[in-house]
Amino acid sequence: MMRLAQVALLLNAAMAAIAGIGFVAGFAPHAAEHAVLARRVAAGELAGAFIFAFTATRLRKDARLIALPMAFVFFNLVVSIYEFAVRRTTGDLAPAVEGIFFSIYAAFFAANLRHGQPGGR
């Protein structure tokens, strides 16, 4: 389970980095017209990529670090749901799908921490 969590975290890090670079490069919708906001989103995505990668490399030593990416994904999930509720466009739900799956897995991982495992109680 630990290896699966690390792989999932690294995949999320890669997706966040690609999204961040896409915003800076202007590939994201409306990034060109709103360059300042696009750079801010890119900074958030790149920070998220760092959080995912950092957690993946240190998860065996301290499994409680899973809380960092869980917080990042949770708040992005909340924003996705809010945007869908306000605008009613299904495109706003795309990030929510990934967020739901990652949140469920991370919660399952955190709930199954054993007492003898590094970072467990």
Task: Give a description of the structure.
The longest helix is centred in the first third of the chain and has 24 residues, at 2-25. This protein is globular. The two termini are 18 Å apart. It is 72% helix and 0% strand. With 121 residues, the chain is mainly α. It has one domain (2-111).
**Largest sheet properties:** none
Question: What is the count of β-strands?
Answer: 0
The percentage of residues in β strands lies in under 5%
Report, as a whole number of angstroms, the end-to-end distance. Answer: 18 Å
Outline the low-pLDDT stretches.
none
Task: State the helical fraction.
Answer: over 70%
Number of domains: 1
User: Could you give the order of the helices and strands?
Assistant: HHHH
Radius of gyration: 16 Å
Mean pLDDT: 81
Judged by helices, strands and strand pairing, the structural class is mainly alpha
Helix count from the secondary structure assignment: 4
Q: Any idea what the shape is?
A: globular
List keywords for this structure.
single chain; 121 residues; mainly alpha
Sequence-ordered SSE layout with sheet pairings:
Blueprint: H1 2-25, H2 35-58, H3 67-87, H4 94-111
Briefly say what this structure is.
This protein has helices spanning 2-25, 35-58, 67-87, 94-111. The chain is mostly helical. The protein has one domain.
